[in-house]
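User: For this week's homework, look closely at the record that follows, marking any run of repeated tokens, and judge whether sequence predicts the tokens.
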Amino acid sequence: MNILKTLVAIVAICSGSIVQSETIKMAVTTSFHNSGLADELLPALLADTGVEVQLLVVGTGQALRLGAAGDVDAILVHSRKAEDAFLAAGYGTHRREIMYNDFVLIGPKDDPAKIAGAKDVVEALTDIANASAPFVSRGDDSGTHKKEMSLWAQSEITEVSSRDWYRAAGAGMGATLNTASGMNGYVMADRASWLNFGNKGDLVLLYSGDPVLFNQYAYIPVNPVLHPHVKSNLVAKVEQWLVGDTAAGIINGYRINGEKLFTFNAKPAG
């Protein structure tokens, strides 16, 4: 009986019925994870490539720090200035754009700051500040937080973090949206996280469409010269899949309540 079981196991292995997956670690933004897209992408990637991607879900700032320390094999983030600094320091080998969506401003449906009619996002934030309306920030050095702070700087609202109406959650996008819902306050979010957020309460999407709110996601392999343990061959295999037709179909086809969350924009190598 033992010999028979052994023979069956050998036949199964040879026929491909038993597949040993290989694994990489990838740090990704909470906004990407909160969108639910990973649940669609990663099983298909595993089926096609045999590579299992273990996600470390953090803000962009922490993802970059994990990459710099060699604690992950690759990162997927959305803060161009910080990404360029990461590459300039030699921590990553290159940057590959994968997909984009946009940032939006969420707030109470009665819109006490009257931002819905703002001509641009800087005017919208200025209106929030002038109304001293509650505003909840990620406050966690994420890509979303970095973007928000750059927009406050453009609005010339100084020392925003010390204002009574401003609250830094120090948390991921889902937790920050929950805080805003509980306070019935304003918040900046990526569109995907907002659409996938279940506890909307009285919050609605009030402002979007300013070109400055464009939100690009990029894949960056960690430099194996600095960290020889990085699985660069598997990282390259994942990258090739992410920029291919199957990934494009999943990304472009992913919808919640009929609304599209991301647009694939990866370009072929070279």
